[in-house]
Write a structure and sequence with these properties.
244 residues; mainly beta; Elongation Factor Tu (Ef-tu), domain 3; Jelly Rolls; 2 domains; eleven-stranded antiparallel beta sheet
Length: 244
């Protein structure tokens, strides 16, 4: 059995905005939708699952007006579906993360109290899939022109496709035209083929969720390269995969 605490929360990324450092509390609530199924004359209420699931999400924390921080992430995007990723088990390759295909931002609350720092809170309703995946590239900066992450071993292939998540929170191209990020898979941890190719990243913030059908091989990894020519490049990003 493993237990986790606040220092294990690895990232909280909303369309590429990193709000981990100003977030103090969060909750993910998954729910199976049921309706009353009892009829006349029944002494006890009964419920039946209608085949639908839903999720809600909330975050509380400090108000920060810095570029690419929480106010920029939330202030003008009520009613917008966001690609959102939360890591709860540490910023380590292969650890679990929760990915939201579309976290619909329902509210943004700025709280002011005497003798306290301003607060910034938000709530979301799930719009689309909520998936439990594995981290293929931890949320951190990379300065090299190319990178193949260490591989994640699933213990076997899977047959029903997958979703890939990308979050880019900082980028300096240094003359390159864009950053190219992919997820690759391999049956033997040696021969690699492209599985998911994200759109070329030219500016921050950036986030994307892409899906693929069919077989996903036993091993997966994230790759990074740049298009064009340049120097002194740097990118801060997270990549994860959720198998179906």
């Amino acid at each position: 059995m493993s237990t986790f605490g606040s220092d294990d929360v690895a990232f909280w990324l909303i369309d590429g905005y990193s709000v981990l450092g100003v977030t103090t509390q969060g909750a993910i609530v998954k729910e199976a939708v049921a309706e009353e199924s009892h009829g006349f004359g029944d002494a006890w209420g009964e419920h039946a699952y209608v085949g639908l699931r839903r999720v809600s999400l909330s975050q509380n924390g400090f108000y920060d007006d810095a570029a690419n921080s929480v106010n920029a992430a939330l202030v003008s995007l009520m009613g917008t579906a966001r690609v959102l990723c939360v890591g709860l088990e540490g910023n380590t390759l292969g650890k679990a993360f929760t990915g939201f295909a579309g976290a619909m931002q329902m509210a943004y609350e700025r709280v002011m109290s005497r003798a306290e720092l301003h607060k910034a809170n938000a709530t979301y309703q799930g719009s689309g899939a909520v998936e439990e995946g594995k981290i293929l590239h931890i949320h951190q900066a990379e300065t090299g022109a190319t990178l193949n992450s260490a591989s994640d071993n699933n213990g076997g292939s899977s047959a029903n496709g997958a979703s890939g998540y990308l979050q880019v929170s900082a980028l300096t191209l240094g003359g390159y035209t864009s950053a190219a990020l992919k997820i690759q898979d391999s049956p033997n941890d040696s021969t690699w083929l492209d599985l998911i190719t994200f759109a070329a990243v030219t500016a921050v913030t950036a986030a994307e969720r892409l899906t693929v059908a069919g077989t996903v091989d036993q091993y997966t990894r994230a790759t990074l390269a740049y298009n064009g020519a340049g120097a002194d490049q740097t990118i801060t990003y997270m990549v994860g995969v959720a198998r179906n």
